[in-house]
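ok so for the tutorial part 2 we go from a plain amino acid sequence to predicted structure tokens. step 1 is just haveing the sequence, like this:
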Amino acid sequence: MAEQVLSRPGRRSPGGAGGKPGWGPGLGRSGGPGEGSGKGSGRVPDGGPNGRFLRVLRRQLGAHGFLIGAVLCFAMFSWYPMIREIIMSFQQTHRDKITRRPETTWAGFQNYTRIIHDPTFAQAWKNTIEFSLLALLIGFAVPFLTAIVLNELRHARGYLRILVYLPVMLPPASALLLFQYFYDPNYGLFDHLLRMLHLPTSQFVQSSGSALVSVTVASTWMNMGGTTLIYLAALQNIPGELYEAAELDGAGILGRVRHVTIPQTRLILSMMLMLQIVGTMQLFIEPFILTNGGAGPGNSTVSVVNLIYQYAFNLSGSSNYNSASALGVLLMLVLGVFSAGYLWLSRDRD
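step 2 — the prediction. this is what the tokens look like for a chain of 350 residues:
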């Protein structure tokens, strides 16, 4: 029995077969556990300060590696083009008469003066603002109402979600070519339906009065799927008890939407409102395809981005890249001021 007894720390225990006094197993000379050989202590050596340093260094290198990759992507594809555009807007590029090589000189605000005095400049800004307002009336309300209807349904909800999101999965060019066929005055689907209903036909994008509205309808159909799913996710996070309390108070469906749905989704609505205004101010591909170049009848669908495209690629002379850069800087400043002002006005004042 004496051989099975372990001594307490700091006390001698009986020895082996010879009965010589020794130290208990797992105890060092100081009597503390884990010292000496380290056997039986249950601790894994951490490698000392060098091992801890290598582990920390490995974690830091991994995190900073991902960060550096993202920064390089932003610097190459966002920040450098932005800075380059600002520099080009103050320069003038022309070809040397002898060597025919492009030369760049400092032009100051000449490019800004040139585009401001362009007769198309005011028309482009007018069309862009009108399109943004029409997109708010149609493209902002329709996805929210669609999300409310989908949220109220109990059957075929998944199928209807796919159906609503399907236009987003189509390439924009394909979707717009489809609408170009719909809008055709000779064999288009929309005019064919109007003839079947014995209603007057429309020129749609061929008329200066209806071209911008037709572009807005096509743009809304293309982009509403993703916005609808975002609204639907926000609606499903609203507690059901709020709707039950509203029903007990006698609120109908409009009352529940007004007093429960809209207040509970105010944050996502405000964010999507700002994103939609910024997106619609960069209108380009819809009128470019539907009106075969973007200008439309009587410049009724020319936008600011389309005017930038015309400066850079349609007009003759290498110096028009500088005019396009100047107009791009103006658009960037307008959107930046709008975004900053909107965020300042919608900030939480509590």
